[in-house]
Amino acid sequence: MKNKQRVIRIAVGIPLILIGIQGLFVLRRDSMLSIQSVNLPKTEGIVVKSDIKSSIMRGGQHVKMYVPDVNYNYIVSGNNYTGSKFSFPTPRSSKIGTLYKIKEYAVGSKTIVYYNPDHPDISCLKPKAAALWQVMIFVIGYFVFIAAGIWLIFPSKKD
91: part of which helix (H) or strand (E)? Predict the structure, then answer.
């Protein structure tokens, strides 16, 4: 019976650690892109799709949130690109809040596109630096996943 419990703890602990590590890497990437997006050059683009899509937030309970689903075409140095990133990180909000965020992005309308000059295929519509408190909440959350996974795999002698 004790061996079976050990296998279950390892089977649950490893995914928790992997989720935490993956989350930290994604957070690092998005945070860096968020900071860099504030100083990106800009060009004019045309909105080709303007919608919202649902995004399930997991936590103590499943919460249905919404994210902008806006696609746009733009040209950099004579090359055509299509972008779909609204901002770094992607904003999640209520349905009404997300509809409000995309109201200025009607299909066919002109918009400003911020792009990475080294990689023009990386772009966004709303440059903004992520707030430090937002980043810290996610960092703490991902470390909790990692710690929980380690605790499950290597419990104290009392457990």
Answer: none
